[in-house]
Amino acid sequence: MGTKRLPSNEDKLIERFFKPLAQHPGALALTDDAAYLTPPAGHDLVLTADMAVAGVHFFADDPADAIAKKALRVNLSDLAAKGAEPVGALLTISFGEKADEAWIEAFARGLGEDCAAFGCPLFGGDTTKTPGPLTISITAIGKVPSGTMVKRAGARPGDLIVVSGTIGDAALALQLKTRLLSGGFGALNEAQAGELRQRYLFPLPRLALAKLLRDHANAAMDVSDGLVGDLGKLAEASGVHATVETSKIPLSNPAHDAIAAEAGLLETALTGGDDYEVLAAIPEASFAAFAEAAGKAGVPVTAIGRFSAGAGVAVLGPDGQELSFEKTAYSHF
Amino acid sequence: MGTKRLPSNEDKLIERFFKPLAQHPGALALTDDAAYLTPPAGHDLVLTADMAVAGVHFFADDPADAIAKKALRVNLSDLAAKGAEPVGALLTISFGEKADEAWIEAFARGLGEDCAAFGCPLFGGDTTKTPGPLTISITAIGKVPSGTMVKRAGARPGDLIVVSGTIGDAALALQLKTRLLSGGFGALNEAQAGELRQRYLFPLPRLALAKLLRDHANAAMDVSDGLVGDLGKLAEASGVHATVETSKIPLSNPAHDAIAAEAGLLETALTGGDDYEVLAAIPEASFAAFAEAAGKAGVPVTAIGRFSAGAGVAVLGPDGQELSFEKTAYSHF
């Protein structure tokens, strides 16, 4: 007899949707107040956290599984750029009024797919409600052999400025979305627009580069707030100047066509952010080996300029003239 | 020359208000994308995360420093109940429209005071804005000697049900706040009402009990969603029945007076939550030693009942009759 404890709806929600993601023994199937982690011997842990708010970082009507995946991937992108492999993550989430069971199920399914795909099980977290927009916070934990986390500081004069993948796609997708009613980018066909949209929805954390960055990079970070601004942060932390040649910046086919048709979109591509590509300082002598190994791992990398003594960032146009931008990076404040 | 990187307002905000809290070398003064942590040898890490939303978990007009302290302390309370000492924390925060610089400064000051007081430096995080209510997520990392995290599962028939401090104060404070226009609790004077309010604003993470719980407790958790419901969770995880005698439940002076004047408030005290006291299963043979050491550490503990074979929770009133409650715990869903 006695008061029978009926599981609350919150317990049921966690049991049904999030417990399957907690594939680490220390997560205790999300039935405890905390998880434990026996740290891998000989390693440092790498810690990063990002918050994403509907209407600020993503659109409330983006697909639920894409919202989940992106919230995790932006953190995994940070780990990758630091040379770290994922260990696990904690999720706190405030569901808005519109998050019904089907939405939560799709969210958890998307997150679970990525937890499995990237080897990043869920350690725990918190679910709550908000009268405001859906808000997601993820703390990701990674690991590197002791003392090898790749930092922003460390780029040296002479190092090449290297980026992975292509730059600007997500920022162009965002720009495109705001223009859809007035015809979008005239130069792009449906498939090209769709390609940009995929890049916005599903950033690719470059975990395949983690070890290569530890082996070759003097400094690295991921490009999240815009290439020019983030390069400025890396240059500042390293105490060096950076010169980028826009002609060398790797662009996707749709980004290329959009910019060719409308030159002003170059600024969007270089300062809009949401790239989640790696930006690294690679010594020139290492670059060939780095690029070859990265290519074999399926991630193209491109040298787009060079660090030198000094401070600040110069972005050179196709004619070698320095470009200037209204703002170099996205800031919430 | 070149594009001079001007620090964004976000950078300035972090530099000015949050960098002083990042007193761990691995936090890199919050100037990198991630922090590193060399795990303490021979220890497991303990991981927990909680989200707090204005209007849901706290009042938007609660003092900024109190909001910060409580957001950290509810996580430290989880660590304490798991037998863990703090290592550090990550903070993600979405500031609402009303969070001006003075508010953010007070928030950061409060958080910094507690980071210092509880030995829990800031490792990193994320600051952003929201069109909705202020939303805070904190991930706390603690440590225990390997394999010693105290779990919910483990209570055995015969173990005493033990709580720290007093139960129900914060829930009564919340109830009192909603009644203020109609005269509050008639039985309480100003000082008593103020005492309850302090308990709501400033929960006390029972870190002084961490080692004692590792040494003596078969199971433990913190009381956050209400004593009866949380005891039900612990009993369920442990596969035992729990019998509580309300006459033994430790009450503060104001809680005692409020309940004496209005018997219905007992239910509020036992199911309202926000206590952040430790709930533990202590073998009877260990209780005297546990209680003495806890008292010396400044934390009174009280045995309020006993676990036995079976399932569920029975709460016995002063006359030995079993009480029943409309709902046993707070749930967001």
How would you describe this structure to a colleague?
The structure is a homodimer of 333-residue chains. The first copy, chain A, contains ten helices and twelve strands. The model of chain A has no long low-confidence stretch (mean pLDDT 93). In chain A, 35% of the residues lie in helices and 24% in strands. By secondary structure, chain A is α+β, with helices and mostly antiparallel strands. In chain A, a hairpin with a 5-residue loop joins strand 11 and strand 12. In chain A, the strands form two sheets. A seven-stranded mixed beta sheet of chain A has the order 7-9-6-10-8-11-12. Chain A has a four-stranded mixed beta sheet with strand order 2-5-3-4. In chain A, helix 4 packs across helix 9. Chain A is globular. Chains A and B meet through helix 1, strand 1, strand 2, helix 2 and strand 3 of A and helix 1, strand 1, strand 2, helix 2 and strand 3 of B. Strand 1 of chain A pairs antiparallel with strand 2 of chain B, so a sheet runs across the interface.
- Give the total of beta strands of chain A: 12
Strand order, largest beta sheet of chain A? 7-9-6-10-8-11-12
Q: Helical residue percent of chain A?
A: 25-40%
Estimate what percentage of residues of chain A fall within beta strands. Answer: 15-25%
Q: Characterize the biggest β-sheet of chain A.
A: 7 strands, mixed
Series of H and E elements of chain A: HEEHEHEEEHHHEHEHHEHEEE
The CA-CA distance between the termini of chain A, in Å, is: 57 Å
Quaternary structure:
homodimer
Helix/strand/pairing category of chain A: alpha+beta
Average predicted confidence as pLDDT of chain A: 93
* Largest protein-protein interface: A-B, 94 and 94 residues
* Weakly predicted, low-confidence segments of chain A: none
The geometry of chain A reads as: globular
The count of helical stretches of chain A stands at 10
Radius of gyration of chain A: 21 Å
